TrEMBL record:
InterPro entries linked to this entry: c-di-AMP_regulator, YbbR
Region called Disordered, residue ranges: 233-297
Compositionally biased spans, kind Low complexity: 240-253, 262-297
Organism name: Limosilactobacillus reuteri
Protein name (record): YbbR family protein
Length: 297
């Protein structure tokens, strides 16, 4: 039995079958490894291609203006501009997320007046290109000026519908600093704190009001006010109509009492006069009887 088993494993056709099976397994293993390797290489190549491809993105960036702010005021330009950034996809994506560059206008060498200035970028990667829109801006450079002005309170109405009366308004800030271009500051006529008063107000009013700089025509001017707000308080009390009606009522009462008192006094006087006249009349009759009696005797 053992000899037959050993002979079975030694036969040529059995060895050939085993060899074929092993060859098939080896073939499939090698092919599977190659396919995985190829897929990995293809994936890496696609990722590399995606990273190396060009991409464009448009960003909204703040505009920096380079000038001596202690001496000059600049106006006439937009605070934001659009920048189209183009380059390798990875760099463009990073720049879009971080926005680690700036757009600026250098006005440091310009004199007061109106100018047309070209915008520039700084801090942008050298592999990226940019296009700014607009490429030029118009600016107006004016000398800086600061003055001190008194705060004026303006109320929307002076009369209330319910007979109540507004008292004198009070502001916790009396004066403010006004800063701007010389031309604008020279136009400032008043600094006002406008308070809207409800027509049916009955209680004291307290408001925080934003200050405004206006010219002689009532137009708001483009200047900086410091501080920008003030707290306004307005007392409200009962009006003259209420007090006059109560005074009138009181006067009517007093007059009525006086009238009644006068009537009583007059009545007493009349009564007294009547008694006096009666007494006098009785005395006269008595005297006449006495004289008559004496004549008879």
């Amino acid at each position: 039995m053992g000899k037959d088993t050993k002979g079975f494993f030694r036969r040529k056709w059995f060895l050939r079958i085993i060899s074929l099976i092993l060859a098939l397994f080896l073939f499939m293993y090698v092919n599977g490894s190659k396919s995985g390797f190829l897929r990995q290489n293809t994936r890496n190549n696609n990722q590399s291609s995606a990273l190396m491809s060009n991409k464009s993105v448009t960003l909204r960036m703040p505009l920096d203006v380079t000038i001596d702010n202690n001496k000059y005021i600049v106006s006439g330009y937009s605070q934001y501009v659009k920048v189209k950034v183009t380059g390798p996809s990875a760099l463009v994506t990073t720049t879009s997320n971080t926005q680690n560059f700036k757009v600026y206008a250098d006005l440091s060498d310009l004199t007061p007046g109106k100018h047309r200035v070209k915008l520039k970028t700084s801090g942008l990667n050298s592999e990226l290109t940019s296009k700014i829109e607009p490429q030029y801006i118009n600016v107006n450079i004016q000398p800086r000026k600061t003055i001190t002005m008194k705060v004026t309170i303006r109320l929307s109405t002076r009369d209330l519908d319910n007979g109540y009366k507004l008292g004198r308004p009070h502001s916790d800030i009396q004066t403010v600093q006004v800063t701007g271009s010389r031309d604008e500051v020279n136009k400032v006529n008043r600094i006002i704190a406008f308070v809207a008063i409800p027509h049916d107000a009955k209680d004291n009013i307290a408001r925080q009001v934003t200050l405004q700089a206006i010219d002689r025509n009532g137009q708001t001017l483009n200047v900086v006010i410091s501080p920008t707000t003030t707290n306004v308080s307005i007392p409200i009390s009962a009006g003259s109509q209420s007090s006059s009606s109560s005074d009138s009522s009181s006067s009517s009462s007093e007059e009525s009492e006086e009238t009644k008192s006068s009537s009583r006094t007059s009545s007493r006087n009349d009564s007294s006069d009547s008694s006096s006249e009666t007494s006098q009349s009785s005395s006269s009759i008595s005297n006449e009887d006495s004289s008559s009696s004496s004549r008879n005797q």
